[in-house]
Amino acid sequence: MAIWEKVRSEFIDVIEWPEQGESEGPDADAGATLVWRFPRQGNAIKMGAQLTVRPGQWAVFVNEGRIADGFGPGRYVLETRNLPFLTSLLSLPYGFESPFKAEVVFVATRQFTTLKWGTRHPVLVRDRELGPVRLRGFGTYALQVRDPAQLMREVTGSQPHFNIEGISEQLRNLIVTRLADLLGESEHPVLDLAANYDELAGELGQRLAQEVEGYGLAFTSLLIENLSLPPEVEAALDRRNQIALSGDLQAFTTYQAGIAMEKAAANPGGEAAAGVGMGIGLAMAQRLAGTAAASGPPAAAPGAGAWPGAGTPARHYHLLAGQQQLGPYTAEQLLVLRDQGQLTAASLLWHPGLETWQRAADLPELAVLLQAPPPPPPIPPAVPEP
Description:
Blueprint: H1 2-9, E1 11-16, E2 33-37, E3 44-53, E4 57-63, E5 66-71, E6 74-77, H2 84-90, E7 103-108, E8 112-118, E9 123-127, E10 131-145, H3 148-156, E11 161-163, H4 165-185, H5 197-213, E12 217-228, H6 231-246, H7 249-266, H8 271-292, E13 317-321, E14 324-329, H9 331-339, E15 348-350, E16 358-359
Parallel strand pairs: 1-3
Antiparallel strand pairs: 2-7, 2-11, 3-6, 4-5, 4-7, 8-10, 9-10, 10-12, 13-14, 13-15, 15-16
């Protein structure tokens, strides 16, 4: 009896995947098992063995690397009549009852619904209103195996265990790449994207369908939860809207100048960054000025020769040198810069009250500064000694 029990123990008579030990929680599907190979360990499968396939599973028989028969959810008694492909591969006669050797691979066919995607780096998009802007995005998607055999051929191969993490990185890269293409082709302004998330997600899903189909997979849902601008751009837009509502362009321009000066004072080595901030503020001020121009003529420019003198507040100028914003400077300090060669007629200057940067030669009150200095006095001739 002991000999027969030993022989019987070498034959497999129950085949199933209990799916025990799966993680739980809101992100459980991120590490869920996608493919699990039944641990045969060299033992033969007994003809007449019981195969149990639970809901959300698919069982595939493999012989020497060749995919044979597949079974959906249910309970089966293995015999030659329900293993036609395997019977053909093994050249088994009909009604064969001896044990046989084959691999049994279980594939999870349920939906995995808590998977996430997101942009690792910002996506550069050119917008008609804001110009080039960088967007970040994230969302969720649901995944399902539609063709277990295709998945095994193209993705998992002969691995005994394969989970979602093995393919999720590739899927995230596909989503972000196709999203960047879609945003580049979209006619929607950046500020209107939030109202069109469903439309964009639907188009994105259609573009991805054929690619993931090649892996034997399908996106059962794909959601865009957020597409966001950099925080500093969002803050600038908020300020623009506030000033637009008040109609006070002068206050907006002055406010932007104050922010730039605060940044320069806090970080002496960061003038370039302060200049970028000023550039954003002034670009928005120009857009507001275009809107405000329709309501009335611009304020009269200062008269020629309007040099700040006694009884008038001192005017402070900002100088744009290369990519750096310098200042503020008084008129007397500009004289020093002129003598040092740092201020010329083509230099760009700005002071509170100007809508845009202007050439120094175009500011009437500075015209006197740019006049050529007188030549040095002549050297008197030497007087001969008596």
